[in-house]
Specification:
The structure is a single chain. The chain is built from 18 helices and four strands. Helix 6 packs across helix 7 and helix 7 crosses helix 11. Strand 3 and strand 4 form a beta hairpin. By secondary structure, the protein is mainly alpha-helical. The chain has a four-stranded mixed β-sheet. The protein folds into two domains: 116 residues, Zincin-like (2-Layer Sandwich), CATH 3.30.2010; 232 residues, no CATH class.
Length: 367
């Protein structure tokens, strides 16, 4: 029991016994007692911090792009730690400046997840708002999809740089196994390709990975549901006029950014330039990138009618000309593990729609 007690030292903001167990020597064995190659804020028990340091160093010592991403997150004040999660590999909480990984997940998968979540932190330092529903509907739709596609593109590039530098392909294999459509959409370099050549091909690789994210219709559904539909729908559960007015103030849906501006902010390479510099309007072409499902469109109509009635503020019409992307709840949902964390917040669960409840039940039952 000595090792077990040491694994649960009382110097952690998280008091989760099982969470600590997954990073303890009982489950993971021993990690080296070394300093992180990037000066980051670590939280957790001794063994959790050693495990996180191993993940950080795997990235920082082998991937030039990964190191830059971690350094930017660290400079912005983000802390790194573990938190047991039922249905995701990790999350980035920009409001509280925290990045948390699921300790139950393999180290190979968590390296890619850390690159993904730290990229979100970097995106926020470059101007992506931390609060949803800040811009008009059309901007929010394209912006939130772009941030996810870019975070996955970054994870791809980091995984391939690690493979080129170390000849260890475990991180890439773990990513490719859970993101098959993205992996199939890139031109995978030969395992023996040197690191400098992989870095030189970075823009092309990230463009292809970014586009690959949009090939997963279920994933797009989940993010449209979590980042847009549920915020619009929640207004329908508020009957107190004062609370409704407060909610409309909290979700302003005002101001806009063009697709070119979104790409210039989000899709950055390690040289401070956009990897879509030669195709800045990419988000305007395909329904998967800029289309809106029928239910979300109808919910937006209802939201803005009610907002105008309560506040007198003119309705947002930015989404009226967006192409249709079909029916949101008529398509099979992705594995619950890959759902956006925001979908599962208590606020979003207060008044689930019957269609959403039915879709979740079908997924859990394997249908």
């Amino acid at each position: 029991m000595g090792k077990l007690r040491q694994a649960f030292e009382k110097n952690d903001v998280q008091k989760d016994f099982l969470g600590r167990l997954f990073s303890s020597p009982i489950v993971r064995g021993f990690y080296k007692n070394e300093n992180p190659a990037v000066d980051v804020g670590l939280v957790g028990s001794k063994y959790e911090q050693r495990r996180m340091t191993a993940l950080i160093n795997k990235i920082a010592n082998s991937s030039p792009m990964g190191r830059e991403i971690l350094e930017d997150a660290a400079k912005a004040g983000f802390s790194f730690g573990f938190e047991r999660q039922s249905s995701s590999y990790g999350f980035c909480d920009a409001e509280h400046k925290t990045i948390r990984l699921n300790p139950r997940t393999s180290d190979a998968q968590l390296v890619a997840t850390l690159a993904h979540e730290a990229r979100h932190a970097q995106q926020h330092t470059r101007g992506v708002p931390t609060k949803f529903c800040t811009f008009d509907v059309a901007t929010e739709l394209k912006l939130r999809r772009a941030t996810e596609a870019d975070a996955q593109a970054s994870a791809v590039q980091v995984a391939l740089e690690i493979r080129a530098a170390t000849k260890d392909d475990s991180v890439w294999k773990a990513f490719a196994k859970t993101n098959e459509k993205i992996a199939r959409n890139i031109e995978e370099p030969d395992k023996l390709k040197p690191l400098d050549a992989v870095v030189a091909d970075r823009d092309a690789t990230m463009r292809d990975a970014f586009k690959g994210w949009f090939k997963n219709t279920g994933m797009i559904d989940n993010y449209e549901r979590g980042y847009l539909y549920t915020h619009l729908a929640h207004a329908g559960s508020l009957y107190d006029p004062a609370k409704l007015a407060d909610y409309f103030a909290e979700k302003p849906f005002e101001g806009s950014k063009s697709s070119a501006e979104i790409v210039a902010t989000v899709c950055m390479n390690g040289d401070g330039k956009s990897y879509f510099a030669n195709d800045p309007h990419i988000l305007d072409r395909e329904p998967e990138m800029c289309g809106l499902c029928k239910e979300t469109r109808n919910m937006a109509d209802a939201f803005f009618r009610e907002r105008e009635k309560v506040t007198g503020k003119p309705a947002d019409t930015s989404y009226k000309g967006l192409p249709s992307r079909g029916t949101l709840f008529g398509q099979m949902m992705m594995n619950l593990m890959l759902m956006p964390r925001e979908i599962k917040t208590p606020t979003d669960r207060k008044a689930p729609t019957p269609a959403l409840t039915a879709a979740l039940n079908r997924l859990r039952q394997g249908r």
